[in-house]
Structures
1.
Amino acid sequence: MLVTAKEMLDKAKAGHYAVGHFNINNLEWTKSILAVAQELNSPVILGVSEGAGKYMTGYKTVAAMVKAMIEEMGITVPVALHLDHGSYEGCKKCIEAGFSSIMFDGSHLPIEENIEKTKELVKLAHENGMSIEAEVGSIGGEEDGIIGAGEFADPEECKKIADLGVDFLAAGIGNIHGKYPANWPGLNFDVLAKVQEKTGTLPLVLHGGTGIPADMIKKAITLGVSKINVNTECQLAFADATRKYIEAGKDLEGKGFDPRKLLAPGAEAIKDTVREKIELFGSANKA
Ligand code: G3H
Ligand code: ZN
């Protein structure tokens, strides 16, 4: 069954490791991520952007699919189904649809409006037994239509949002959605340390997990990051494996064109990426 992300992230914060949030785009993505989480006995967060929710025909479809897959696959590790970068309306729809966690991304709003809407959604999420993530500052780059300028989070604003009762908080610390540019200066650990100082035991979230060097990941975890989001890296791995399959002409051999064969290399590539991240984040055997 689905669980909220609160307990697994509080444990991660206390245990100095991070739980992976892996975005799903369809059944194959979900199957690969769940299988590896179970294999490594790791808690896992399945992230669903609003665009992916629409692509999968709606949040009710996603919730029903994930719940059924957990049962059919015999998944016993903690799994949270989490709306990623949710709008106010999207959050309300996911509460209705049976998600176990939501993110309200109010980082593009004036802080007062971010506070006002976050406060309302915290109450609603908790009344429905769900966890809720908020964001301060913004994540650079573009993710599924979400474009951020990459402003650093203001630690005082983080405290104001934390005091509303959110369960975990995403703070902009120079992280970027998508591939990092060659001249990327790295994560700003001074800002992260100040945010943690202001927010105490609240689990912090690192968006834009694709391509961040392992030493930075480990340092971010020591400074309070307990949830790390990864999407692009799985997408690139899937695309690369699928391209290789087709370039090798495998789709022309026998029933190689069967979608269950055509999608298999990509699904395996997602597994490899998720496995590597779970090992790096330290959540293996922490279910
Ligand atoms: O919200 C999703 C994540 O922040 C994904 O970031 O695509 O750069 O790995 P990424
Ligand atoms: Zn993100």
Note: The pocket of glyceraldehyde-3-phosphate (ligand 1) is lined by residues 23, 47, 84-85, 143, 177-178, 207-210, 229-233 (CB under 6 Å).
2.
Amino acid sequence: TALVALEGAGKRYGNIIALRDVTMDVHAGQVTCVLGDNGAGKSTLIKIIAGLHQHSDGVMRINGEETVFDSPRDALGAGIATVYQDLAVVPLMPVWRNFFLGSELTVGWGPFARLDVTAMKRIAKEELFEMGIDLRDVDQPIGTLSGGERQCVAIARAVYFGAKVLILDEPTAALGVKQSGVVLRYIMQAKNRGLGVVFITHNPHHAFPVGDRFMVLKRGRSIGNHVKDEISIDD
Ligand code: ADP
Ligand code: ADP
């Protein structure tokens, strides 16, 4: 069963049709790439899955069950975490604080309530190291890290707090070649850990190496839907 499935989903804002008849699947251990230019409907698609907007037509299924999220909190509760391009982290806060930021939303602190600062710093450092980022100092403001590393902290945080679906909104858009590579490697790590990743990007060169499924949006319509294994090359 797909973690997330859209079946003929549509979204209207008044008389503007932002999405129409969109069908897509997100599976565990796979990356679903959503490609498209500005205005194609990528943000609208994210907002529906993340509980910020509701679809006007069609069906959304979460683990096979027809679902409409009333709020972002509902989506988080269902294990759907979104890393937005700009809002991922608070620049002046130390790395470790950013790592635990928002955890009260997902886990109500719960088991984490008893963690002291030393433990939180250790966990942040270990989790980042595990995913391939070696920070000597998690006390430094996260604003001192590169853009790629900042995105990675936000992704590692979602993975650590048990997200099943990770939605990444243009995580490489503002990054150079090297930093994009760091984030792409991180996406592979999340995928290998069994998460279903939705990777929004306008850059096919970033989508192809990591993607398992590809959807191209144009003016709210899906104009291409490919699954990697199904792409055949004549020999
Ligand atoms: P993308 O993220 O691919 O740039 P969007 O989902 O932001 O595309 O936008 C798709 C279309 O829907 C655009 O024409 C945009 O102007 C319109 N749109 C998006 N959000 C709203 C809104 N809240 N109200 C009205 N129109 C919107
Ligand atoms: P993004 O860069 O993520 O695609 P935009 O800059 O297109 O986002 O949109 C920013 C916000 O404005 C979003 O909440 C979007 O839904 C809203 N929006 C976009 N287009 C319109 C529109 N034509 N009318 C009203 N709101 C819009």
Note: Strands lie at 4-13, 16-26, 31-35, 57-62, 65-66, 80-83, 165-169, 196-201, 213-218, 221-227.
